[in-house]
Design goal:
Largest sheet: 8 strands, mixed
Structural class: alpha/beta
Number of helices: 9
Helix content: 10-25%
Order of helices and strands: HHHEEEHEEEHEHEEEEEHHH
């Protein structure tokens, strides 16, 4: 069974490398513009499977909680973040330090997608939480990967811990093979957990038993597909703590029914799958739990998640049930007339299909900053998957768009040669083309131990 899954996944990767990558207008895939509350967010399959919407009001949409995303760069100007990417750090220097208020746009979309699942107004589990974007990985034109070093990742984890993160999301194993065997990274993870930070780590996509463990407060996350079972690629068993929706397109390609739809740079959206996509679901629910009861701490978050998970073979305590977790020890009801706090700008309506390439520059804070190399319009993403033909990153100046301005251009993914359908004559115009991004954030290259 595992061998068959590996053969399928290698086939998917070859299809991706073949280069069927174009921009698309997929307004028909998106619900109307959503405010930062469960009642107005799209009812995506992953939210339904993990009972996310039942938890958001109880968890105040994650208001007041900082979640660090140690990953590739995060586009803070995406309107779905509403200015809640409140700080960035650039740690890609190899010397174990990070530069605050600095980021370098490049061809990598992974960090923005992960952050969107945590906290975007449209697709975020905790749409009022704040994101601390810690760039520890970057695009490498020599290999075509979005990758980095253990030294930089460990520095990013330490930065996040020191700058108020209550939750840290690490969906990076695929981008840096064997990173979680790096002693510096392991020490940084253990130190973060010891200070009371909830650390969510992607289990990996090799369909292998997982044996790594980083101590109390660290949650290793497997992925499920739309059927609620472990995804064909997901690592399992051993030290896996929980599972969450990550998508499972097998060889048919990503669709909104099989993969995770979230934010991508420059007012766009994309479909990805992998344990990288499952992990931010757990990080987002952790933010809801901490917003509900700030004093419960990491141990209380872990206990609530594990005690309420639905049993699933090979997934530790099981598949997360966000609603049950938030109801487990819910604080007493507020006095009559009190309302749950909910913040965050409303998401704009979908905008025009066209996307204009932009020259990549670096945004910097005080002090000198590293030099950013502009990416090309065909720069590959992680592990040989190619970037959209017209989506070269633009400059890095933080200028969050005001609510109600022109909306984003969405992206989608499907296999080469497949057709699109939007369900009837009154649907939005047929998709012109689609973005193939399969298993990104955790591509399935054979022999890589810990994709995320």
């Amino acid at each position: 069974m595992i061998g068959a899954a590996r053969r399928i996944r290698r086939g998917v990767r070859r299809t991706a490398i073949a280069g069927c990558v174009t921009l698309a207008s997929t307004a028909a895939l998106l619900a109307p513009a959503a405010a930062a509350h469960a009642a107005t967010q799209p009812r995506t399959w992953n939210f339904q499977q993990a009972d996310i919407t039942a938890a958001q009001g109880l968890g105040r949409d994650g208001a007041g909680v900082t979640v660090a995303v140690v990953d590739t760069w995060v586009d803070p100007t995406h309107p779905d973040f509403g200015g809640r990417v409140f700080d960035e750090a650039y740690c890609v220097n190899g010397n174990g330090t990070c530069r605050d208020r600095t980021y370098a746009p490049d061809a990598c979309i992974h960090g923005t997608h992960v952050s969107g699942t945590i906290a975007s107004s449209r697709y975020g589990v905790a749409p009022a939480a704040r994101i601390l974007a810690v760039q520890a990985l970057t695009y490498d034109p020599s290999s075509g990967d979005c990758s980095g070093s253990g030294t930089d990742i460990a520095a990013g984890i330490r930065f996040a811990t020191a700058h108020g993160a209550r939750v840290i999301n690490l969906s990076i194993g695929d981008l840096v093979p064997l990173v979680f065997q790096d002693s510096d990274v392991t020490s940084a993870i253990e130190a973060a957990a010891a200070t009371g930070v909830v650390v969510a780590v992607a289990a990996g996509n090799q369909a292998l038993p997982l044996t790594d463990s980083y101590g109390q407060g660290v949650l290793l996350v497997a992925a499920t597909g739309p059927d609620g079972q472990l995804a064909s690629y997901s690592d399992y068993g051993g030290s896996v703590a929980l599972a969450a929706p990550g998508g499972d397109a097998s060889s048919s390609g990503c669709t909104p029914q099989t993969c995770i739809l979230s934010t991508t740079p420059h007012d766009t959206y994309g479909l990805l799958q992998g344990t990288s996509m499952a992990t931010p679901h757990v990080a987002g629910v952790a933010a809801l739990l901490l917003a509900q009861a700030p004093g419960r701490g990491a141990a209380g978050v872990v206990q609530a998640l594990e005690a309420t998970a639905r049993p699933l073979s090979g997934a530790g305590h099981g598949l997360i049930d966000a609603g049950a977790a938030l109801r487990l020890h819910a604080p007493r009801a507020a006095p009559t007339g009190a309302t749950a706090q909910s913040t965050g700008a409303a998401a704009p309506a979908p905008g025009p299909a066209a996307a204009t390439p932009h020259h990549a520059t670096m945004r910097t804070g005080p002090g000198s900053a590293p030099t950013a190399s502009p990416s090309t319009s065909q720069a590959p993403l992680s592990l040989g998957i190619e970037a959209p033909a017209a989506s070269t990153p633009r400059g890095g100046t933080r200028t969050p768009r005001a609510a109600g301005t022109a909306g984003p251009t969405p992206l989608a993914a499907r296999p080469e040669g497949s057709s699109s359908s939007h369900g009837g004559p009154d649907a939005v115009a047929v998709v012109a083309a689609t973005l193939v991004v399969l298993l990104a954030g955790a591509s399935i290259a054979a022999g890589r131990r810990r994709p995320g």
